[in-house]
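Whether sequence alone determines local backbone shape is best considered at the level of individual chains. Part of our work consisted of pairing the sequence of a single chain with a tokenised description of its backbone. This step matters because it turns folding into a mapping between discrete strings. For completeness, the protein is quoted in full, as a sequence line and a line of structure tokens:

_____
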Amino acid sequence: MANAPAVQNDVQTLAINTIKTLSMDAVEKAKSGHPGTPMGLADVAYVLFTKFVRLNPREPAWIGRDRFVLSAGHACMLQYSLLHLFGYDVTLDDLKAFRQWDSRTPGHPEFGHTVGVETTTGPLGQGISTAAGMAIAAKMLAAKFATPEFSPADHRIFVIASDGDLMEGVASEAGSLAGHLGLGNLVVLYDDNKITIEGETSLAFSEDVGRRFEAYGWHVQRVDGYDHAAIEKTIRAACEETKRPSLIVTRTHIAKDAPTKHDTAEAHGSPLGADEIAATKKAIGWPVEPTFLVPPEVRQHFTEIVSKKKVEFDRWQAGFQSWRGKHADLAKQWEELHARAVPADLEAQLLAALPPATDATRILSNKVLQKAAALVPTLCGGSADLEPSTKTRIASSGSFEAGEFGGRNFHFGIREHGMGAILNGMAVHGPWIPYGATFLIFSDYMRPPMRLAAIMKLPVIYVYTHDSIFLGEDGPTHQPIEQLAGLRSVPNLVTLRPADGPETALAWAFAVRRRTGPTALALTRQKVATLPHATPLDAATFNRGGYVLAEASSGKPALVIVATGSEVGPACEARTILEKQGVATRVVSMPSTNLFFEQPDAYRDAVLSRAAKIVAVEAAAPDSWWRVVGRDGLVIGMRRFGASAPANVLAEKFGLTGPQIAAQITTWLAGGK
């Protein structure tokens, strides 16, 4: 064999050493990355992928495939090496371009960027928690479509998680819920290598992780990460356990076989260095040069494995086609669900579902949600123990519970962080359009998974109620101030704060239709005013993010008041007062600054009438409004935390009633502050 290792090994050992050396070489070439974990996990990953993971590199989106989540995203060269060896569209040149500009092998796995990567990971704890959502999505499909002879959703979710993943609180939230629900299709291999960036895990982590997960209701096993027979036995036992999720505590050694970096923190986040790599290769009987060596025997070995897995693929496909033939009604529903189809007249039907009287936008949202759920069967979701307040239960459906996986209502418990990650898993697995609800103030607990949803362009919906100081008596700890500005700053997250029933209906329609990223709805606790729509609001107008609600009496405004949500009503009151004072005033409702700034300059300039003075009004931090009003404009909002009092008292104390807004604008126009 050309370039043969100095010491001939059996093909399995050659394959495992290929995974190790590809990982070492790629990190060294990039002068950046994490070589130690791929080296330590190569044996475990080899057994998992060759013996268990159902895949087909020629059909990477095959619906019947098992999903693999590398929650330990820093070990991504392990996954990239496996993808290359199994024949996915990840070339040797891609491995050599690890962590470089426009490479298909970025520094952490990215969904939609590298074929074979099922979800973006890297922020620790997110991968294992997202995997719980993927397991839920599969269980929902199986509950709806499985028949005695075949299930089109019988696949498993396999995860490799690290010490860091299981230290993060989000993993505890999702792990607890996964155990409670009995997600028997979830198998997690915990890489217990006892090393983090700062040193040994004993610096800050001494708990028995296995016993913790046993307390969550998981099936827990322990295994030596280099005993192949034992690894296979434990994974098989995990796959046979169908009533509980499984955790396999896998004892490994970071940078295994490296003479001086073995079991050291230095191997976690830095290249081994040329000398250590040379010594490691010699220790395993591998030539120092050439780098990125894949022996022909190894290529042939993986080709044979893929051929065997193709037999499994063909068997599943035959079963699927037979199932389709026998159950045409289910097959039709399957196709419709996976198309995430929505009616062409969705907006009209949601508008028609509104009650005649105005109310809090959270109440109006509930009415709209019922109709949306009836029209869009992929829509499902729940609340972080706040449904009586968020009003997000689908009345026509039951709950998703242990052993009863057909319901569309979820009880996430008081676990906002875990809820956000689980929503990502449900969306990335598909075909579901999931939503999660809590108070706007607690969106802060959800920022990491929201950010990942935006990066992955997932159709997740966040329903955030109690959206301002006007939630009232609960006081400043529960009254959001800076949250709206924060949400608006996240790229690809569209934040909508509707002002009345029609805007709420169209906000839901926008969110349900959106396929390129997540959407946040900010809804009121308190009733909102009836707004003076001159003509019925339509989706084309609403989806521009801002529109003229009430025009100046002269048609040429000297003043434009821009407002959102519950402040649009008081802005209209202020307009009436100012018009009587001779100030030609236009009111613009701007439910989404994100959408508004996507519009052409001509539209934005026409709505804001740049010749006029511009004022923004929102019961929140002013930071996101200066781009709208300009440096010479005025923002009326909250520059401090709120207080505990009834909503009407807070409005008066903070100067947010219609007359007070008018008075502040009058003073400002006169040159005051």
About this structure: The chain has three domains: 11-308, 346-522, 544-669. Residues 2 and 295 are 8 Å apart (CA to CA).
